[in-house]
């Protein structure tokens, strides 16, 4: 089954840029719904076919980026964006308990399927997908 997930790539590896530099949220702190810091947006995963941001790649832990672990958060979780921060609709605990990604151990398509299921969002490749109503990443 071709899910279309294979079209995901890091914006930093794509050679593309965000059309409006104000919407490039890389480097901003990610805060949970209670205002606790989760990490920083390291990169954005884009659907290269539709040129849409689908996931935030958030680095957390480590010291000065060394030993940091990447987390992936669907854009549907984003509630607000400021000049310095990205707020999401989940708690720090919920994010910490999300499926972990290890490219050596986990099949990528299955991982992203599990991730969207864990967060309770319809994946962007599912029939009838409706983009986030908040419109940050339309």
**CATH fourth-tier homologous superfamily:** Photosynthetic Reaction Center, subunit H, domain 2
**Helical percent range?**
10-25%
What sort of overall outline do the alpha carbons produce when their principal axes are compared?
A: globular
- For the terminal residues, how far apart are their CA atoms? 26 Å
Domain PRC-barrel: 23-89
Protein name: PRC-barrel domain-containing protein
Organism: Paractinoplanes rishiriensis
GO biological process, one term: photosynthesis, light reaction
Explain this structure:
The protein has 138 residues and is of the alpha+beta class. The model has no long low-confidence stretch (mean pLDDT 82).
Task: Give structural attributes.
alpha+beta; 138 residues; seven-stranded mixed sheet
Summarize the structure.
The protein is 15% helix and 29% strand.
């Amino acid at each position: 089954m071709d899910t279309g997930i294979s079209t995901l790539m890091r914006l930093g590896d794509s050679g593309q840029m965000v059309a409006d530099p104000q919407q490039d949220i890389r480097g901003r702190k990610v805060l949970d719904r209670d205002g606790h810091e989760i990490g920083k947006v390291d990169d954005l995963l884009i659907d290269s076919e539709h040129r849409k941001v689908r996931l935030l790649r958030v680095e957390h832990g480590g010291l000065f980026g060394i030993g940091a672990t990447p987390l992936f958060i669907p854009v549907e979780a984003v509630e607000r964006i400021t000049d310095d921060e990205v707020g999401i609709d989940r708690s720090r605990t919920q994010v910490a308990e999300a499926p972990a990604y290890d490219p050596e151990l986990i099949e990528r398509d299955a991982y992203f399927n599990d991730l969207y299921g864990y967060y309770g969002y319809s994946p962007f490749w599912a029939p009838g997908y409706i983009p986030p109503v908040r419109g940050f990443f339309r």
